Amino acid sequence: MARKLSKISAEWWDYTTLDDELIRDAAKLDEKDLLQLARPGFEVVLYDTLEEFYLAEALEYLEAWREATPDNPVGICGPIGPTEQLPLVARLVNDLGLELGPAHFWGMDEWIGEDGKAVPTTHPLSFERADRELCFDRFEKPIPEENLHFPSERTELFSASWEGVRCKVMQGGQGDVKHWAFNDPVKREGAYLDQPPSPEEYRRLGTRVVELHPITLAQNARTSGGGNLSLVPDRAVTVGPVETWRAERVSIWQAGVHDNPLGQRLTALMISKGLADSAVPMSLLTDHPAVRFSYFRGGLGTCSVEMR
Fold first, then answer.
1. For the chain, which residues make up each domain, given as ranges?
2. d(Cα 263, Cα 174) in Å, to the nearest integer?
3. Helix H segments across 4-84?
4. Going by C-beta distance under 8 Å and a sequence separation of 6 or more, which residues neighbour residue 251?
5. pLDDT tens, 272-295?
6. Three-state secondary-structure class, residue 6
């Protein structure tokens, strides 16, 4: 049977092409149900306050870097979105006087401009600029510049930076399109006109330049550009599943700011139950050996209908 057309854009795959029963099951989940979705390899954690939530996220950076030695360099791959943890990372590093010579950091993604190149740090939406200004430029004892890896159109160089370095954690948020980094669903065309890529096919994707789903463009305009969609590039470079599976743990942080109540529930349900579908890219993490979803309890919201 042919899959439904997307309610958002018929030219794309996304979560609105899923079976209605799965969507209804996700919408029914309450806080207790979410916690019960945990299983070996999938951890669910709830935090009562935003302060505790973002501090715990920041501590994952230190957890990774404190394991780094000259003979065993260790790093973390981190997002822009959320960003609230980044100044906390800098504060902790400075107050604890950490020496970060063998530590590494990978940015998850970056915008690609009309010239086909990663946008410069002068671009108002530059992710590298945000990482540096909110975190790395504040270090009193900085990480060596050669250990900071930001993706660009030269994807082969970024992919090579993972060689010989252990990635302790890949952090991320969850977008409205249910992505991590910019691993968006693909367009509904060619070989993928009737079915999206199989999970196995999608997981073979590495760092690459992608065309972004309309939901992703709208979300980034809303969260970062005051709704000005003209600011948001149509393409980006992103880490892929290949790099993600090199991380010892994938850690997804959901404060209720980016994805909505249904989305926060849907991906947890699919990961817990082994329901991998590339129309919901986050669901592919069901096959990763160590995934942790961290939620702010006050951001879970409800899927009940409210007309006010």
1. 15-299
2. 8
3. 20-27, 31-36, 50-65
4. 57, 60, 169, 170, 171, 172, 291, 292, 294
5. 999 999 999 999 999 999 999 999
6. coil
Report the distance separating Cα 254 and Cα 258, nearest Å.
7
Tokens of 217: 């463009």
Burial annotation 166-200 (CB, 10 A radius, 16+ → b, else e): bbbbbbbbbbbbbbbbbbbbbebeeebeeebbebe
Tell me: the pLDDT tens digits for 248-278?
A: 999 999 998 888 999 999 999 999 999 999 9
Q: At what angle do helices 127-134 and 85-96 cross, to 10 degrees?
A: 40
Residue 213, helix vs strand vs coil: coil
Structure tokens, 22 = 């799965």
Provide the whole-model pTM.
0.95
Instruction: Please give the pLDDT value at position 56.
Output: 98
Class of domain 15-299: alpha beta
How does residue 231 score in pLDDT terms, banded at 50, 70 and 90? confident
